[in-house]
From TrEMBL, chain A:
It comes from Chitinophaga oryziterrae. One of its GO terms (biological process) is phosphate ion transmembrane transport. Residues 8-248 form the ABC transporter domain. CDD domains: ABC_PstB_phosphate_transporter. This is Phosphate ABC transporter ATP-binding protein. GO terms for cellular component: membrane.
TrEMBL record, chain B:
Gene3D superfamilies: MetI-like. The chain crosses the membrane at residues 21-46, 66-91, 112-132, 152-175, 196-217, 262-282. This is Phosphate transport system permease protein. It is a multi-pass membrane protein. Pfam families: BPD_transp_1 (PF00528). One of its GO terms (cellular component) is plasma membrane. Part of the binding-protein-dependent transport system for phosphate; probably responsible for the translocation of the substrate across the membrane. GO terms for biological process: phosphate ion transport. InterPro entries: MetI-like (IPR000515), MetI-like_sf (IPR035906), Phosphate_PstC (IPR011864), Phosphate_Transport_Permease (IPR051124). The keyword Transmembrane helix applies. One of its GO terms (molecular function) is phosphate transmembrane transporter activity.
Amino acid sequence: MNEAIIKLSAQGLNLWFGNKHVLKNVSVTFPEKQVTALIGPSGCGKSTLLRCFNRMHDLSPDARIEGKIMLENEDLYDKKISVTEVRKRVGMVFQKANPFPKSIYENINYGLKINDIPSKERPAIIERALKESYLWEEVKDELKKPATRMSGGQQQRLCIARTVALRPEVILMDEPCSALDPISTRKVEELIVQLKKQYTIVIVTHNMQQAQRIADQTIFMYLGEVVEEGRTDDIFNHPQKDLTKNYVSGHFG
Amino acid sequence: MKLAARETIDSFVKAAFRTTGLLVIVILGGIFVMLLWNTIAFFAHIKPLDFITATQWNPGGNRASYGILPLMVSTGIVTLGAMMIAIPLGIGTAAFMSEYANSRLRNILKPMIEMLAAVPSVAIGFLGIVIVGPEIAKLAHQANGLNALNGAVLLAIMALPTIITVTEDALQALPVSYREASYSVGANRWQTLRKVIIPAAAPGIIAAVMLGVGRAIGETMTVLMATGNASAFPKGFFHSVRTITATIAIEMGEVPYQTTHYYALFAIAAVLFLITLLVNLAGEYFVNRYRKYQAT
């Protein structure tokens, strides 16, 4: 793609749900400390691809995966690698904010406990994570409040804080702003741009403007295949393929 | 004309449904008033303090004694024992079905558990007399196994379907996003179940346990058959006990109308009613405590 280090990649990835061939021979790369957007019409396999990277499909018994997914030089589907280790290193933010039905503090503390981080270090990590997601000023006096009482945008930033608290290497985001109003969306986008200084980010989005605003690289998918990938500017302004051109200019999708 | 007929039918149906709705209140109120009325009549004969503190229930003797304490302790022991068995088994089974079992196994297990609820209590009591009781007697080196433990085991069996079904529904009702959130920070199934799923489903689980407790406290036939019904003050799980329900069932048929003994049975029924009410209120309290964390 370019001279940046390749952090995450899929090679010859195929995925079936039962008999349905959902991902077809997908090979993509994600450069380190950049934002890569996955775009394409609904049902093209963007979210399915995203969920391969933290092995979320392990939970669906009818999913079958072939091919390789490499985090740097390690195969994430290698039998020697534990799935919980994968998910700690590859964090995920979901389409709909899904805080635990616990307090704001406990929402972040949970992941730290799960990953055996000593209790003495936890308060500082929680504060840092909330500051990194620009939530600290808004919630520092009400950390004991149920997270479900926060606004939708705050909940989504809390979910991001929960993810960054674990210092993952990659953050996967599945349409993180689709349920948010424009102001909350802008805050989350600003946050993503800040986060890429430290993390490799893969974001699924339906919003073309959003992809252009925040993504360095863009991958266009259609019917389970990668049609085109490249620098965001190239994909949107000088697409090589007609399919891409028609999609980014709003002719279909 | 047609329109007017439809209006008439509508208001008639509305009135009919309102009547059925109000009927429930009338029946409940009627039962409450009847219990209360007879209980007051009882306290005209026996001092409330004696009722609560006397350690003997002996209505037939020369010096009749109406102490509810042995009956309450009996009911308490049997219910406690039943819950100690049924709660871990029930939550464990529900968790297995909801979180671990594949859909094929779940589709076999669920109707089977529901069938367990359809076994008549008299059949369960019979099971207690011929199987569970003798086994307990052998283990405890006693002459017979008609004791509190026997009743507790049987009541646990009877409460299990309720606890499992309601708990499993509560676990299944949780959004999949809770599980995904937990797995995405690196939790395994057990951590997710223990720290996210069970706490989030707590209102439903508590409701399940409360329904189970209600089933155990109110159950009559099984304990009547299985616990020996000795009127001595209960000493523990390996002794015969006589619950409130069994006492009413045994004595109501023989007691002369409107005697002190007759009123006494209403008084202990009122106490039973009060206990079930408190169990339900306690359930409500816990349900509300957890509910504030639930997404709206």
